[in-house]
Specification:
The chain has four helices and four strands. The chain is α+β, with helices and mostly antiparallel strands and 120 residues long. It has one domain: Nucleotidyltransferase, domain 5. A hairpin with a 4-residue loop joins strand 2 and strand 3. Helix 3 runs parallel beside helix 4.
Length: 120
């Protein structure tokens, strides 16, 4: 029987395979959610580089937010990454939720990024 980590890795690989098939060269907005924090990166898979990143571990956000593990923090990070992407000239991305369900904090982050002008 597979362990929980192996199952999570399988879900993430399956999701990334589908994204690679449908991305058509667009950049990838990758979400990582932990028990206490949430972080997001916009990654260029062709070059293998992170272009834009935001996390609840950043100093100024740690002071503003009560915790990094709620929907309010996810909304803040979604808005922040969209603003940074606009400054970098990025408007279209592919959303990579990893092994996480599109629910709760992941959903709030995605909706906040869309409202702030990022298209996916």
């Amino acid at each position: 029987m597979l362990s929980a980590k192996e199952l999570k890795d399988r879900r993430a690989k399956r999701n990334r395979y589908q994204i690679a098939q449908k991305s058509h060269g667009r950049l990838r907005l990758s979400v990582h959610r932990s028990e206490r924090n949430i972080s997001v990166q916009i990654i260029d898979d062709k070059a293998g580089k992170t272009i834009v990143a935001a996390s609840t571990l950043e100093e100024d956000l740690r002071k503003k937010l009560k915790t990094g593990a709620n929907k309010e923090a996810a909304k803040t990070i979604g808005t922040l990454v969209a603003e940074r992407a606009k400054k970098a000239g990025i408007t279209e991305v592919v959303f990579d939720r990893g092994a996480y369900l599109y629910h709760g904090r992941v959903k709030e982050l995605a909706e906040a990024a869309r409202e702030a002008g990022l298209s996916f």
